[in-house]
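Inputs:
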Amino acid sequence: MRKINIGLIGHGVVGAGVVKFLQKRQNYIRDKYRVEFVVRTICDRSIHRKDTRGLGAAKLTKKIGDVLDDRSAEVIIELIGGLHPAKEIVTTALRRGKHVVTANKVLIAHYGKELFQLAKKQNRQLYFEASVGAGVPIIKTITEGMVGNTYNRIYGIINGTCNFILTEMTKNKLSFTKALKLAQGKGFAESNPTLDINGMDSTHKLAILAYLAFGKFVKVSDIYTEGITHISHDDIAYAESLNLTIKLLAIAKRYENIVEARVHPTLIPKVHPLASISGIYNAFYLNANPLGDVLLSGEGAGQMAAASGVVSDLLNLASRGADANLLCNLYSEAPNFRIRKIDQIKTRFYIRFMATDKPGVLGKITSVLGRYGIGLNSVTQPAHTAAWAVPVVMLTDYTLEKNLRLALKKIWELPIVKSKPVAIRMEKLW
Ligand code: HSE
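Outputs:
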């Protein structure tokens, strides 16, 4: 029986989940893999307020140094999230010859390149399966399961909280605030849920996926990010009547040496498999060459989902040993990639205006769109209850984002338009 000593830093929702998971599966892991994980030290800044029953013989501490100084610990699990001191913890652990398992998407998105290089230099492993998709094994799918392919497109529903909120708003007509509170109560949301709902959590995860798929770390600041706070029940309902569903999508596409990476609410056809991914489920729709399309989905947030990702890293580490070079740690910069800015992206749009109810209104709006070369696929005036204005919903043809923005600015200046135009991008996905 091999014994692997572990130091755990961060005993929040996920940290507590990892301890619970290891305890529950102890016999199974021992019998099947002939390995025993011993959590030697647990560090948490508010460990004194935590329920520490069931933590066995583990030393409990508030000092990070107590974990890093434990010479017997082969693996450090970093689960405090954020950039600092997480970066210093991971760096120190690797320099001291320890392997690291982390679920920290912010850290890998910002410093992955540097940390992978350090891990390689130190001949140690840096595992991060739970950083994207929690329990859904997307990191291993891209870097191992589908290795040998090149990736053309990734469409991901990669924030469980946002998917849960949009699902609740759509199916149960819950308000945004109520749905968010529910997600927080269930432990899906980040401690600061702003990162979930403003799209940044998805952006960090997309930066990691783009690196794994395209061999290039797209800077977080180069990823166009729009969250879900402005999505209204009206737009959800109008979209439904057009057989479309709103999802917060993380999109990465590669056209030879150009990469597009963006996160925004997106209208997708209801018949597409991604449209049926609901609640806290995450999903990844990958297009690879020569394989084709792959859809992977499952619980993308929550205590046991994230703990499952962390434990799978521990077991991989135990079975491969120290010398195996992880494919996901082998950073090799693809030198000629250029990032396509959001203004230069061509896509279709759902646009909605609240306009005065009189003849000639549509003509005025379409004439502005025409001036910017924006063609229309459909125009509808959905049933409504507002007395002050009527909704006009249009689906455009493929258009340059920059032109659409300029046109909407002009349309908003028209006296017949009574509220700021709404625009939601559409993706065909196939
Ligand atoms: N807050 C994240 C989410 C947790 O809602 O998806 C998993 O990374």
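Remarks. Residues 134, 159-161, 188-190, 196, 201, 300-301 surround L-homoserine (CB under 6 Å). The chain has three domains: 2-127+304-320, 138-300, 344-426.
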